[in-house]
């Protein structure tokens, strides 16, 4: 890993970080992979809604993704610490290619069914479970320590830029062409295959543990024990999982919001998805340029609270324009929350545990998928507006609990340091 900046020097800015060639390769690889995945997600969610017309069915697609993520993600963290990280990313991207190409072919041949979307969600979840911990652990090896927060912001901005371009293009293609849905899936597979080629230019990444000394299960248990011994890490992880589980399922309801509340169909769905991504991109670029020397815990708490409040405001929006404005804030606040959480976890954890800690972080995305089904059923029963408003309130509550726990944990740590 590159060393920290010398004393008296400012942390590298966004453009300085991109001049680090290995990080630039990682950034470009992530950009291509995210674009393919985001377009695929839009097409799969719309296809599920088209096949069933049910919010619960949308939740079921995310549930398949979430359960698989919960099972596979801790092992993805073990793989990131145990194996060359580039190899792990290559295998993961290949799984993502297969999950997209299969549904594209099935749709083109008119044999696609709802259960196929469920299976595709499982395959994609396994790919994510491998890709994300390896990507974040490798990032920490490629840039100076002081540049990690900015690098995390730039990597996460990739996903949000993809959510600007991917959903908008996917929505336009799906709505404009009779072959639109399969075209999105097959193009996604091509983009993901390109990501495999770009990954070849990455360094392999160092192994953090002796594979001959411990079994994968033993390494997994070591990672869990490490987090249990660190209340500061445990509080961060639980807050991230709770906020993501309670708030991120709003993505599953955007098709229903576009179609049922505003009668705008697939085009409205793409625009709603893209609007939250616009806010995230603007926020991520800002975070990538700042020094990150302020109180990161305070930024985390503020960003999480704003995310919950904006989500509730979006639910109450009486017009499509106001919903778009609220979603811009939703996207920006969520990106700030995720960036700050990831940067804090990388800064506070020991480098030999980066992969496993990042694997536990990704449990939040599994939890989001698990929560989507019951929330979808609730939305069918009481309406999407009330469900989304309730999700926002729960997010604010989780953040407030974290604020209290975090203050106590940090105060106890200061007392130990003084002792």
TrEMBL record:
- What membrane topology does the annotation report for this chain? Multi-pass membrane protein
Any keyword Transport?
Answer: yes
| Keywords associated with the record | Cell membrane, Membrane, Transmembrane, Transmembrane helix, Transport
Domain Major facilitator superfamily (MFS) profile, residue spans:
22-409
Classification via PROSITE patterns: MFS
Q: Which residues cross the membrane?
A: 23-43, 55-75, 87-106, 112-131, 152-177, 183-202, 233-254, 266-287, 299-317, 323-348, 360-379, 385-405
SUPFAM superfamilies per the UniProt record, alphabetical: MFS general substrate transporter
**Subcellular localization, per the record?**
Cell membrane
In the record, which residues are listed under signal peptide? Answer: none
* Name of the protein this chain belongs to: MFS transporter
Query: What species was this sequence derived from?
Result: Blastococcus carthaginiensis
């Amino acid at each position: 890993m590159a060393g920290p900046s010398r004393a008296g020097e400012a942390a590298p800015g966004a453009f300085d970080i991109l001049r680090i060639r290995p990080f630039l390769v990682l950034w470009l690889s992530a950009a291509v992979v995210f674009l393919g995945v985001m377009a695929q997600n839009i097409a799969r969610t719309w296809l599920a809604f088209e096949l069933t017309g049910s919010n619960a069915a949308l939740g079921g697609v995310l549930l398949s993704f979430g359960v698989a993520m919960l099972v596979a993600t801790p092992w993805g963290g073990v793989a990131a610490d145990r194996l060359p990280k580039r190899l792990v990313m290559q295998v993961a991207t290949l799984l993502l290619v297969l999950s997209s190409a299969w549904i594209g072919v099935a749709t083109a041949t008119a044999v696609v069914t709802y259960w196929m979307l469920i299976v595709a969600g499982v395959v994609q979840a396994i790919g994510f479970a491998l890709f994300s911990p390896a990507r974040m652990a490798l990032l920490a090896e490629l840039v100076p320590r002081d540049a990690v927060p900015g690098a995390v912001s730039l990597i996460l901005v990739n996903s949000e830029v993809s959510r600007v371009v991917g959903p908008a293009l996917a929505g336009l293609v799906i709505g404009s062409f009779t072959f639109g849905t399969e075209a999105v899936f097959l193009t996604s597979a091509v983009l993901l295959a390109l990501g495999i080629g770009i990954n070849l230019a990455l360094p392999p990444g160092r192994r953090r543990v002796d594979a001959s000394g411990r079994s994968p299960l033993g390494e997994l248990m070591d990672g869990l024990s490490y987090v249990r011994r660190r209340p500061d890490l445990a509080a961060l992880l639980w807050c991230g999982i709770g906020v993501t589980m309670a708030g991120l399922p709003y993505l599953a309801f955007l098709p229903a919001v576009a179609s049922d509340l505003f009668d705008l169909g697939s085009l409205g769905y793409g625009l709603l998805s893209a609007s939250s991504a616009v806010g995230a991109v603007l926020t991520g670029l800002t975070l990538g340029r700042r020094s990150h020397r302020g109180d990161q815990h305070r930024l985390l708490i503020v960003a999480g609270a704003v995310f919950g409040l904006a989500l509730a405001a979006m639910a109450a929006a009486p017009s499509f324009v106001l919903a778009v404005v609220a979603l811009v804030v939703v996207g920006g606040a969520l990106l700030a929350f995720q960036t700050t959480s990831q940067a804090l976890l990388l800064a506070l954890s020991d480098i030999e545990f980066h992969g496993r800690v990042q694997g536990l972080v990704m449990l939040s995305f599994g939890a989001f998928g698990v929560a989507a089904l019951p929330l979808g059923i609730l939305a069918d029963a009481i309406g999407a507006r009330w469900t989304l408003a309730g999700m926002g309130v729960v997010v604010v509550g989780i953040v407030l609990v974290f604020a209290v726990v975090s203050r106590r944990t940090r105060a106890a740590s200061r007392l130990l340091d003084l002792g």
